[in-house]
Amino acid sequence: MRILITGGAGFIGSALVRHLIRNTDHEVLNLDKLTYAGNLESLTSIADNSRYEFVQADIVDQPTVSAILQRFQPHAIMHLAAESHVDRSIDGPSEFIQTNIVGTYSLLEAARAYWSGLSEPRKSAFRFHHISTDEVYGDLHGVDDLFTENTPYAPSSPYSASKAASDHLVRAWQRTYGLPVLLTNCSNNYGPYHFPEKLIPLMILNALAGKPLPVYGNGQQVRDWLFVDDHARALLKVVTEGVVGETYNIGGHNEQKNIDVVNGICALLEELAPHKPQGVARFADLITYVEDRPGHDLRYAIDAGKIERELGWVPEETFESGLRKTVQWYLDNLQWCARVQDGSYQGERLGFTDIKDLHA
After folding, report:
1. Angle, CA 31 vertex, CA 26 and CA 32 arms, to 5°
2. Residue 217 CB-density burial (10 A; 0-12 exposed, 13-18 middle, 19+ buried)
């Protein structure tokens, strides 16, 4: 297959690209705007592969996307390009509306025009796979409740509202125009190459620097954590074996309170990085509780039973094994982290130690 991936220089997108190039014979075109979260250094290991191509473009630019589709002639589009940081969406929602809603509309229109011109065999085999988030469902109040594919949408933030809107657009383009679509909604991802503004890498790098570990509110918010390589395997399953028009929830079966995640990171660092910064007796002493963010959802948890029953996918990593691999990767790749933190990976200075850059 020839697969066009939007947002392939981001965290999940780059994991998917690496998985496809390393473990399949598919050809991949990575279309990415390269905003602050897009990092081509996450793809260095496969960048020279003959089955991989990178094009810098914005999904909002429909004529350019249409030209790329005509040249590459993909059998599938996997759409991951999105603004995805909750706190950034609260501070400035405009970019989220533009990329997540207008960008998805533009991509759908380009894909529809391309798909309409295909021969009948290729037309019926084509897939548009939209990758979304469990945050479109809002939060759960009962301790035993789980998000299913039929859970009503109740987004809480500008980010999740924009993703919910994009989900609705994708379904409408199938219902109205017949575009063969697939949707997936995933839980919190973690793993190597995660941008250092996100909870787990932020805690690791702040701890190593002897900086405070900021935890929102009382730290009791619950998330289901999904190792990013498990997610990549699931996405490939869906795009190749999923039923057109269906939605598949992808979760890690790993519910954890935020404070327990932070304590787990501290415990691993005690073992794996025993040489602490000056003045730090225990990494856990750096934990600092800060004011909760507006509209902070209390609990997310996914029922991933459908994708297991119908496609045979289950996560390979437990949270304990995945977190250990993640902490070790950051310890082994501090140069990659430093280039992200000082902005040299894209020629401008960025910093991610302020509480506003924390996403739990």
Report:
1. 135
2. middle
Q: Which of 27, 87, 134, 167 is catalytic?
A: 134
345 is catalytic: no
135 catalytic? Reply is: yes
Region 2-194+225-254+298-318: CATH code: 3.40.50.720
Q: 105, 114, 137, 159: which one is catalytic?
A: 159
Residue 32 known to be catalytic:
no
Residue 55 neighbours by CB under 8 Å, 6+ apart = 29, 30, 31, 32, 68
Report the C-alpha gap between 268 and 266 in whole angstroms. 5
Give residue limits of the domains in the chain. 2-194+225-254+298-318
Q: Return the closest-CA partner of residue 194 out of 203, 184, 186, 185.
A: 203
One of 87, 135, 167, 230 is an active-site residue; which one?
A: 135
**Token pair recorded at residue 224:** 């289901």
Summarised one tens digit per residue, pLDDT across range 298-346 is 888 899 999 999 999 999 999 999 999 999 999 999 999 998 888 777 6
